Structures are given as C-alpha cells and as structure tokens.
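Most newcomers find our protein records easier to grasp once they have seen one. The structure tokens are whole numbers drawn from a learned vocabulary of backbone shapes. The record below serves as our worked example for the rest of this section.
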Amino acid sequence: MVGTMAKIDDSVKKKVPELRFKGFTDEWEQRKLGDEVRIVMGQSPNSENYTDDPNDYILVQGNADMKNGRVLPRVWTTQVTKQAEKDDLILSVRAPVGDIGKTAYDVVIGRGVAAIKGNEFIFQNLGKMKSDGYWTRYSTGSTFESINSTDIKEAIISVPAIEEQDKIGSFFKQLDNTIALHQRKIDLLKEQKKGYLQKMFPKNGAKVPELRFEGFADDWELRKSKELCTISTGKGNTQDKVDDGAYPFYVRSATIEKSDEYLYDQEAVLTVGDGVGTGKVYHYVNGKYNLHQRVYRMYDFKDVSAKYFYYYFSKNFYKRVMSMTAKTSVDSVRMEMIADMNIVFPSVKEQENIVELFSNLDNTIALHQRKLDLLKEQKKGFLQKMFV
C-alpha cells in the first residue's frame, strides 16, 4: 500500500499531508467537526433504571467501556435516553478525555460520552487528535476533566475530498485489522499458557499433575523454598536508576529500569516485596543486574532449575501472598512467605521438558508482542504523515 503513495516536498507550504496516495493534489479544507458529522451528546438514565440484565439496553457511559478501539458493555438500563447505532463512533468526554472507539452493536449512551456518525477517516483523525493532546487543551475541571459539546462541535479538522478520505480510511482499517490479529494471537497464546500452567503442575495436595509428558510416572517431591535456594533482597535504591545504564535494574514494578552498576551476576528468580505489583511481578534473570532493596531474589538452586522454580513460583505465589499479607497501606512480602512456601517438583528431566514448553510459549508471545509494538509504531508514524 505504501508504494502507491507519494511524499510531498516539505518546502511546499500547502494544507496537504506529508504523505498521500498518488493522484491526489488538492489542498485539504479546514472544517468544524460539527459541520462534517452528526454529534449526539449522551445523557445518563435515571438511577432507578440501571439493571444488570443483559437483555435490557446496553449502556455506554465512559472511556472504561472502550478496549482496543471497540466499545464493550458493562452496564445495562431499561430507559432509552440517547441511542447510537452499530459502528457509530463513541468519544469519551470525561477523563481521560478524547478516547475514541466504535460500537459493535446498538447502545444507549450516557453522560460520559458522545456518539458521532463518522466514516473511517473521521475515526482515525479523532484518534490522532487524542494522541496529539488536542482535547486536553479544551478540557475543564480540576478534579474531573471533561469537554463540552460546543468544543467538540467546533473542533477544527482538515479534510480532503471524499475519495481520498475513503482511501486513507481503508488503509488504516486494514492496518488496525492486522494489529487486532496480532493482539488476538497474543491473547490466545496467553490463554493457552494459562491452561498449561493449571494442568501441568499438581493441584493442592496432589503428587502428580493432571497433564504431563509421556514416559513420566513417578510422584513429584515436595520441599520448602528455603531448602531449594537461597533467598535475600537487593541493596539498590531508586536513585540508582539511569536512563541509558548498561545493566537491568529490577525495581518494585513490572518496568525494568537501567543502572550504571550491577550488584549480582547470577541466575535468579525475582519478585517485588511491596507495592501494587506484590505477588504479580516476577522476573527470571541470568547475568549481571542491579536490584532494589525491596525486591526479593532466589538463587543458588539445588534439585530444581531456576527456570522451573520461576514458572512454579510465579503461578502459585500470588495466592499465598493474598492469604498471608499484612494488610497495611500496601500489600507486602515477608521473608517467611517465600522461605516456607511448598514447592513440588519432578525429576530433572521432566523439569527440563516443562521448562522447554513454557519457554517456547514465552518466546512466541514475545515475538508477536514485538510485531504488535512495531505495527503500532508504524501506525503512529503514518497518522503523523498522512493527516494535516
């Protein structure tokens, strides 16, 4: 598709995009959004008309109902106030303002959104306006941001002839479909991995898993974590973070930072000790790394491999944390939560088979994630170059 486009000379100061399809040379015109499309502001139903019956009308009332460019149902109502039809555009008018999605069905729209009758070109244009921060400039309210109907209707957009709109819309729709395909593949692989994790490790009290590789029949062994590895925390502090550091720096979140120095050079399993990621964030590392003082490391394994421990531990530790955590201001991990946790494991050979299966799944998921990230970056670049 890109091959059918032509790049515009930057020296030509016209209202035209940097990149456009061949055959189109006319300047784009600036219009008010309200003059180009029909806009309907939502109106919330009366409180007594909310229901949880999916046979009633689907109510969309905010950006939380949007996911991956589609609008999902969360609430239902018996009262029809404002309606939008299948494939209408839904714009969030409350914080974070400007999120845009499409309905997959007829819906009732609440006070938090506006329904727009627009084509694919308008949909993509609104998405670019959101990413450019257009709506933030017009939002009001210190505690609860919102944009009003006048600012929406009078928003200035640049538009070409309808034929060029159609070409641009088709291009981005195909790109979105490819992005959605990769996202579905990732979601499917993650569900597949989740299923294997449930079936390939023994359930509480069991000595063998529901599903295992052929040729293995022996009962699995049970030990406490402290019998299988050494456990400690790191020594690093938040100020050790450096944007372009040479070594990974594991902190109290899923984000892996960088550091100019490393504390350890080893194979280890890591988990955060407190904060919102408690019981949810795990890392397997093999090499040089820095470690925050509130992140736990398990290393020097015996009888189990580090990778096997990583898969078993990351599957089972969250439930243990939630049952034992000291509910103060945040969830936290105490040493005994890890040290006294029961770990069940098979022979070394069966461990190797299990690790290979999950490593292959992780690698495939990571591959699709990289492709997905690249496609999103490509779309971001095209949006900047193909719109005025």
Notes: The helical segments are 33-36, 120-131, 149-153, 162-199, 225-228, 306-324, 335-339, 348-386.
